[in-house]
Amino acid sequence: MTERLEIKAALTVDDAGTITGIAWPFGSPDRVGDVIEKGAFTSPEVLPMLFAHDQAQVIGVWDEISETPDGLTVKGRLLVDDVERAREVRAMIRTKAVSGLSIGFRTKASKPRQRGRTITALDLHEISVVAVPSHPGAQITSIKAADGTAPHEENHLENEAEIETKNDPVVSPEELKALKADIATIKAKLNRPTAANNNVPAPANDNDLKALDLELKRTLLEQKALTISLPGTGGNLVNDTLMTQILEKLGKSNPIRQLANSIQLDTGLLKIPRLVSGVAPGSVTETDTKPESTPTFEQISIEPFMMGAQVLVSRSQLEDSAVNLVSWISGHIANKFGELESGWFVKGNGTTQAEGVMTSTEVQEIESSAAALDVDDLLDLFYSVKSSYANAGAWVMNRKTARVVRGLKDSDGNLIWERSLQAGEPGRILGQPVYMADDMPDPVAGNAPIIFGDFYRGYLITDRVAFEPSVDYAKFSENDLVQFVGRRRVGGKVIMGEALTKLKLKAA
Fold first, then answer.
1. What CA–CA distances, in Å, run from 10 to 88, 101, 136, 484?
2. Span 262-285, pLDDT tens digits
3. What does the alpha-carbon distance between residue 116 and residue 110 come to, in Å, rounded to a whole number?
4. Where are the beta strands (DSSP E) in 448-499?
5. CA torsion angle for 212, 214, 220, 222 (degrees, to 10)?
6. Using one digit for the tens of pLDDT, what is the confidence trace for 289-331?
7. What pLDDT band is residue 153 in, cutting at 50, 70 and 90?
8. Is 70 exceeded by the pLDDT of residue 144?
9. Which of 58, 337, 380, 470 is most buried, by CB atoms within 10 Å?
10. Is the pTM of the predicted complex or chain greater than 0.70?
11. Is the Cβ–Cβ distance between 445 and 281 less than 8 Å?
12. How far apart, in whole angstroms, are the C-alpha atoms of residue 152 and residue 155?
């Protein structure tokens, strides 16, 4: 019996339309040796359809779940009309980029087998669309799109081996070190001689320790599969699925990107009109001439700026590494791009970088009456923007400022910080959510540590090149080095300064 949530999958994908498939085949083990018997499943009538077992990415619902002689058969529908991620997944399934299903469940009853377990009872919690399922037979059998262009019954088992080796999960250096340490400990226990006067009898069966030793070795060997092409003039090593994951990393590491409006550019420069003065209506009688009023506009431009990185790795290191260095390097570059982008959107100079919300001259600023932050400053900041912006507003500050705010109390002695009612949701101040940005200034005299307002209407992000990775074996071949290059083009600008206001603490 176990209470932990078990997930049978590797990578995630997204789709749209009506999907049918086998979420778990009966009669054969998965990659870790687990077998689930027919009749073991207990589930509600309707289950959520997730992407990569991510609770924050619900892309549809499973309406029909039944046990057949072949396995756990499911039928569901993607929320393509309401969820952008669902439409992206549909495209991936049509192009056969993803074809797997995976289940998330809690085990209620099981018994050990030579390798793995035989599970006889479980509670099914969700079913996800994934790139590489834990069970090779857990495949999408058909997808029916609203436009009728989706393929009919189709089995993707012949491609499973290739997909598996190209999408093995990346093991971090810390995890790898821990696994090696566990193997060394287990070997030491297995080889330790038994003392002659030991009153504890030797175990009748040490298969459990040996099985764990083999399982750890197998895990390390599986991570050794490197996605490396043959030497040549160069080639793109990162597929569309990995690029999608990288974009997700950028979004999750950047609070301004979460809050602001963003668009994909087809050209290098975006020019948009902005209202300077609107129509001025007046009071008139029934027969009076209406006053003439003409709105005026100005044009603003948003340019995408370049960010890039180059990594040189020896071919020997690539060949001998126990982890997928190609995936790790790509993910590492993407994470660093996310950190750089986050800094741009807060304090970028607007000339060689995206314009930051804190450096823009169009953002309003109010100054506190004292050098230390207090409740009145937050009230002044909240009521300094128009009601339409405040109702959709959010607070952005760093963690040091949040620590100060969490200790502030109103005149009735109540903490002004409101805890979130649901796990994963941000805390609130005066009913509006608070987001943490590490690049925001600290709450010291003379700094502007907090900005509040409607970022969706106030700030626009322009994506020109999401993430472009490449590899070249030829350029440094004389030194036996491989060159990895990543580049990204992104812009950002405050387009409606009145939607945002920042608080500056009085100088000491």
1. 19, 10, 11, 25
2. 888 887 788 777 776 777 787 888
3. 10
4. 450-453, 459-472, 481-494
5. -120
6. 878 777 777 777 888 999 999 889 888 877 776 667 777 787 7
7. very low
8. no
9. 337
10. no
11. no
12. 10
pLDDT, mean of residues 441-446: 94
Type of residue numbered 238: V
Structure tokens belonging to residue 369: 């009456």
**Hey, what are 5's tokens?**
């949530």
Residues in the chain: 508
CB atoms within 10 A of CB 217: 13
User: Which H or E run contains 268?
Assistant: none
HEC letters along 369-389: CCCCCCHHHHHHHHCCCCHHH
Strand, helix or coil for residue 494: strand
Q: Is 91 helix (H, G, I), strand (E, B) or coil?
A: helix
Which pLDDT band holds residue 135 (cuts at 50, 70, 90)? Answer: low
DSSP string, 204-265: S--HHHHHHHHHHHHHHHHTT----PPSSS-B----HHHHHHHHHHHHHT-HHHHHSEEEE-
Helix, strand and coil in the chain, % to nearest 5: 25, 35, 40
Q: Cα–Cα distance between 318 and 309 in angstroms, integer? A: 19
